[in-house]
Amino acid sequence: MAANTHSLWFTQMIEYDVPPLRQDALAEALVVRSEHLAQRCDGLLSVSIQVSDDGRRVLQLLRWQSRQAWAAAAGSFIEEPFLDLLGEHQARGVNFAAYQTLRSLVRGTDGGLHCQLGSTQAYQGA
């Protein structure tokens, strides 16, 4: 993937395929794991844990300041018991994806969508 020097941030997406009875437990484990990651990695801006209505998937979105911030933190991932986490929650599959965020639209106080400009959280009318 070509790096874009004008990206707002770097998003890492991890989707887990689990038995429905394991969805809630995996989601909770990912929250705890994400909190530990945030304590160690200054470049981690936010984490979102989402679950599917059918109970079979958990999606973890990690938003980093940049691809470089993610790469700097990646060295510590070896310490994470990732394979243990997958086995404990009987994950049948894991999909990874990563994206450079070029634009982000958010609803402003006026009710309209506005383009987010970088990490300053400033907004401009769209």
UniProtKB/TrEMBL annotation:
All copies of domain ABM, residue ranges: 10-76
Cross-referenced SUPFAM superfamilies: Dimeric alpha+beta barrel (SSF54909)
Tree of life domain: Eukaryota
Pfam families referenced in this protein's UniProt entry, alphabetically: ABM (PF03992)
The name this protein goes by in its record: ABM domain-containing protein
